[in-house]
Amino acid sequence: MQHELLRNVLLEASQVSHPVTVELVSGPQLVVRISTVGKDWLSGEVEAGQARGVIIPFRSLEAVWARESVANTMEEKPVGQACMRMALVNLVSLRKQVRVHTLRHRWNGVLTGAFQDYVVIVGNTGDPVCLPYAAVNFVEVF
What we know:
By secondary structure, this protein is of the alpha+beta class. It contains 3 helices and 10 strands; from the N terminus they run αβββββααβββββ. It is globular and about 40 Å long.
């Protein structure tokens, strides 16, 4: 299965009942078992904490960690028209070390996918992290 949109990664995670870890632009990191994915939001149960459930707009996501089985289904589609995406697709094919800067973090690793609205980076831990383009400030290439 190919995932062009971050929404589809989240949908798959909800269908296979795998929890995902999300980091919000405001700081908190939550482990969520997704129950519903809307056009631009998700809802689910939080695995720890006082609140039982959450509703999170996609614009609040800084990063998403999906389990390996979900991340392995992410495959590249042909390049679209977006210039940033074209540059990132090129970095994916070159397998260069990069540092992706978001508001609160620097993500070091290799880009493994550049999709319609998110990029996937794999760091030293080997875990894929989905970063929405809206959260990316800039990318350094090494």
